[in-house]
Amino acid sequence: MALAIVKFATSTVFLIVLFTNTYICLCRCPPQEYEALLSFNITLTFPAGYGYEWANGTDCCEWYGIECDEHKNHVVEIRWMPDRNGYGAEGGIMSDNLCKYPSLTGIVISDVGLIGNLPSCLGKLHFLEDIIIEYNGLGGVIPLSICMLTNLSYISLRGNQLSGSLPSCLNNLSSLRSLQISDNRLSGQIPFTWGNLPLLEFLDVSFNQLRATLPLSFAGLSSLTDLHARGNRFNESAPSWGLPSSIKLLSFSLNHELTISEIFFRNLTNLWRLSLSNSTLNISTSWIPNFQLSELELVSCKMDGQIPPWISTQFSLYSLTLADNGLVGEIPSWLWAMAASFDELNISQNHLHGSLFPNGPNSGIGILDVSSNALSGNIPSEWPALTKLIEGPPLQLMLNDNLFTGNIPPSLCNSSLWLQLHLENNMLDGMIPWCLIEDGSRIYDLNLGGNSLEGSMPQRLIFSSSIQYLVLKNNQLSGIFAPSFTNYTFLQLLDIGQNNSPDIFQSQLGIFHLFKCCIEDGYVLLSSLPYEGGNSRSSSLGGLGMASKGTELYYTYILSTLISIDLSNNQLNGDVPLDLGKLNGLRFLNLSMNSLNGIIPHSLGDMSQLGIGCPLPKNCSWPKFASPRPVSSPENKDDEESQQIPRRL
Known about the structure:
This protein is mainly beta. It is built from three helices and 46 strands.
């Protein structure tokens, strides 16, 4: 290698001549840093045609994700992360070359698939202020040399596979404001020394394997506003000494052995968001908090009894989740009054009774989930026309699995914002207001099954409707589907069984075309729809009953791949379509009790998976993404609980 240095008035340019490759590089960054970047280029890949490639012989300060100092031309920032379209650097192996940029102030390597271990030489980067290496595949331990970086203000190592204990020497980082190490495999206890971080504002240690509880020293974290410790193994009672009054957001969810009493909150006068799901609450009914919450999440907290009266003192609430707590009694009037200003109310999976919005739903509530209770009476006849949009999860109205009677009010059509509407398994009757799924409606998930609804099958569903999941099973509907269904390509789930129609499809042509359209688009039956919006839960698309080999199976969560078709007892006529042979992943096919004629297509012989499996799950090896359970019967009732489908796929 021959190296020539040419000085100009405004900058220094390095002329690098590599005789082996015979090219010239006019590079602003020093040769050592240039070569260190090239070493990453060996393993990194970039999408072609987007200008991200690192070309040999070009100025490294102009490369994708590299920023240089304007005066000395040293590399000061490395930023590799996908753009809005998901394009950017991919892959890469972490090495000591990361430490060869002495002027580096920031590292952002997010979601590119980087593997390896954090280098122990990190302590050499004395100017480093931000280190964000998140959602990659890094393993090993957090090197102690990180404690030498006294200028660090932001650390995020979340979403990797880091293991070992937490470095107690982090108390040396007197400038540290944010520490995020969630979603790793870190173990042990939170060091006592971490209570000596005077500027720490944000701490997230969620979803690791940490034990014990918070150290007493945390009482001195006077700048701490956000504390997240979800999904660990804290197995002691929450500290009675209290936390600093500066905390505004507190999340201890999914610490199943943690017990929390009201004394834990005695200093939290500024708290406005609280999540303690899957913990045990030991709070007296007479407790009056000294804070005003905006968001409260208490799922599976073993509260029993009535809805805690202390919630009535929280006048700033706009989001309340009390699902799966064994709560009993009538829903108090004060809760309905507060709900008038809510964005979200979830009191599902309890034993509550009473009516829904006794004074009418005069709010713009966007998410209402009272499913799986014992609510009764009519669904309110007047619903407001929702006009506001909220960030986060889709707008939902979940009234399923209650004791509601009467008609479905047409005023539910007033809102063009509903995306999910579940009224299944009640005692509703009367006609279905088909305006729910006509042109202009945004509902994509409608479940009205398990009621006593009457009238004809929908005749006015048109192509511009947004409906994707439609369940009308187990009602008293009659008639046939309109021909417009046969070309409806957006539909992903259709369940209309157990109705009063002896000829539910106009001919074999309609239903088979419907399946053909969906299959060619790559989807037919979709799994649950999780969302992240502060809370995290799944939204059921309802169950699906399938009959095969004389046994009726019921899927509480829907498969992401079509493996079973049950069109039995529908009086279908005509020939069996040749296209069925294209479904080479199909395991079960039931066309019995129809009026089909002609010959059995030879293409069925190409369906190599057909017939594989068995009717009862206890004798089968089912795909891991879903499993069926038999419909309840005296001989299998005892096994039903052990065969439940996981709530999240």
